[in-house]
Amino acid sequence: MSVHYTLNLRVFWPLVTGLCTALVCLYHVLRGSGGARAEAPDGADGGFPLLKAAALLLLGYVLLRCRHAVRQRFLPASPRLGGHSAFSPRPLREPGLSILLESYYEHEVRLSPHVLGHSKAHVSRIVGELVRAGRARGSPGPIPGGALALAFRGDFIQVGSAYEQHKIRRPDGFDVLVPLRLPPLVALEPRSLGAEPALAAAFSGCFVCALKAPPSPSPSGASGGHWLRECKPFADGFCVDVRGRRHLSATLVLRWFQSHLQRSLATVRYSLEGRCRVSLTPGGLEQPPTLHILPCRTDYGCCRLSMAVRLIPAVHLGDGAFLVAPPPQPLPIGPLSEFPEGLRTEALWGVNTARQEQKLLSWLQERAPPGACYLKCLQLLKALRDLGARGLDSTAATQWGRILSSYALKTVLLAVLLRKGSPAQGWDEAHLGECLEELVQFLRDCLLRRHTLFHCVLGPGGAAAEVGPLPKVLREATPVDLLAAFDGHSRELAAARLLSTWRRLPQLLRAYGGPRYLARCPPPRSQRTQGFPEGEP
Fold first, then answer.
1. CB 389 within 8 A of CB 397
2. 104 contact partners, CB below 8 Å, separation of at least 6
3. 284-331 pLDDT tens trace
4. CA distances from 142 to 133, 213, 239 (A)
5. Are 205 and 334 in contact (CB under 8 A)?
6. Distance between first and last Cα of the chain
7. I want to staple 240 with a disulfide (CB 3.0 to 4.6 A). Which of 111, 249, 255, 265 is the partner?
8. Is there a contact between 343 and 208 (Cβ–Cβ < 8 Å)?
9. pLDDT, tens only, 436-450
């Protein structure tokens, strides 16, 4: 995907002013060390022109910032939407709102390609060393090694918004899949739970993996009961019983994975001391572990950022699709009483189709006209979600973020693009506001059950033709509603909050836009709610 570089005035003007000031100081130091100062013919100090130039640059910078603040303060306000249509295009065609959107995007949303590139390269080097060390160490834990040991495959796969060109704000969070290698005597038989009778809809996106003998004969010629006896050490260490059959346990694999990462990190920590400080935070049984990368005091690089990298254990299904442990959040929040008898939560796996989604985005990019802004709209939609969380208490803000997750928002964009006859047509910069409005309206309709937000890859209705081959278990899976985990009341409150945020968008952009070091306007007291608002604030 093409990357556009623009001049960052927030950095350029202070840098030029500081450079000129340093030249003036250096000039005076060199003159003072050279002996008696020579007087200019008119008696003026020879360093005055440089000092005057620095002062003029500083004055120009101050005037530029004042102009920006005045423009943000006195742009015409957006009138309150009236009539029956909640998404009237009138405010988006109002003079000034496009300027607000562009300004907010540049100052608060857009990432520097330079900083993002350095961050991704740094993460790739550190994680690569850690994974290679983990592969060389072998398998600790219930099976110390040998033919039945679980191990790192030796590679890693970078996934998420940072690698799809729609991450916002700061490049300080990354997701990395760490594929695991199963023993040669073990094969998996994955099965989707979407068609499971009496199962809550929230669990329909989960999978279970039964153990089976590999299709080719084992080296020892074992089969049937003898194969089960041979695989008993592996089954006892990493499997649970589900309806009388051994299934690979996501909980046990995650526990082994975190222990193995700790041992591997101890191996490479000393070699990394000169470049950074690293630590590993276990995620327990509900989250994957997080690798924290802190800049070293002796690191004078241009991008000294603290980064958090989620390391996710993954089992390859084929064709670039993976099962991951634990299932991605939001983990189904339906009551466990709705969980069918005989199934166990420890055996639940999530599915990751990041490779297919990246191919789908590339397919859309190839068919998009030059200057298409659909990724920019996705970034602004994420920023709109963050603006909507302001003023909420911690519990409501967490629920708001779970419902409008980044993955759900990306799926909204893909669904809107794919349902059109010509993908990405009409998504040029001149219609940025209207395109953003279309995404918000579709999202609101999904929250109110007027549309269903299906997973873009799973099931017969997925975009399999555009993303290439898929494993059979994914092609035949039941379509997954990404919002099924949330009850109707929570979805209605989220839709009301989304509508309220959309209506107040110009005011929110003025209050929270602009350079980060300008004073921010606090939200009105009436907006600091203790939960989602029932309607207009």
1. yes
2. 380, 383, 509, 512, 513, 514
3. 777 899 999 998 765 555 567 789 999 999 999 998 999 999 887 654
4. 19, 21, 12
5. no
6. 41
7. 249
8. yes
9. 999 999 999 999 999
Give ∠ CA 438-440-443 in degrees, rounded to 5: 110
Q: Which residue is associated with the tokens 């260490």?
A: 237
DSSP, residue by residue, 21-67: HHHHHHHHHHHHHTSSPPPPTTS--TTHHHHHHHHHHHHHHHHHHHH
Q: State the Cα–Cα distance between residues 496 and 388, nearest whole angstrom.
A: 11
Alpha-carbon gap, residue 203 to 349, rounded angstroms = 10
- Specify the long-range contacts of residues 15-23, CB closer than 8 Å, at least 24 apart: 16/57, 17/54, 17/57, 17/58, 17/61, 20/50, 20/53, 20/54, 20/57, 21/54, 23/50, 23/54
Question: In angstroms, how far is CA 379 from the centroid of its own chain?
Answer: 11
Q: Is 213 helix (H, G, I), strand (E, B) or coil?
A: coil
In the block, tokens 């600091």 appear at: 528
* Segment 36-52, tens digit of pLDDT: 444 445 444 444 565 66
Residue with the two structure tokens 């069918």: 340
Helix 406-418, helix 374-388: angle, nearest 10? 140
The pLDDT value recorded for residue 11 is 65
> What 3-state DSSP class applies to 104?
helix
Cα separation, 418 vs 479, in Å, equals: 16
Amino acid letter, residue 195: A
Identify which has the larger pLDDT, 142 or 321.
321
How far is residue 259 CA from its own chain's centroid? Answer: 25
Strand partners, 309: 174, 291
State the amino acid at position 110 in one-letter form.
R
Q: What is the pLDDT of residues 67-114, one digit of tens each?
A: 655 554 444 443 333 333 445 444 444 446 778 888 899 889 998 888
**Residue burial 92-128, b: 16+ Cβ < 10 Å; e: rest:** bebebbbebbebbbbbbbbbbeeebebbbebbeebbe
Per this entry, what is the length of the chain?
Answer: 537
- Residues linked to residue 210 through DSSP beta bridges, in sequence order: 189, 247
DSSP state of 285: T
Among 414, 379, 409, residue whose Cα is nearest residue 166: 379
488: tokens are: 């109707």
The more confidently predicted of residues 163 and 531 is: 163
Higher per-residue pLDDT: 59 or 486: 486
Query: In the predicted model, what is the mean pLDDT of the chain?
Result: 78
Instruction: Retrieve residue 12's tokens.
Output: 């350029």
**Enclosing H/E stretch for 322:** strand 321-324
What angle (nearest 5°) sits at the alpha carbon of residue 373, between those of residues 368 and 378?
A: 115
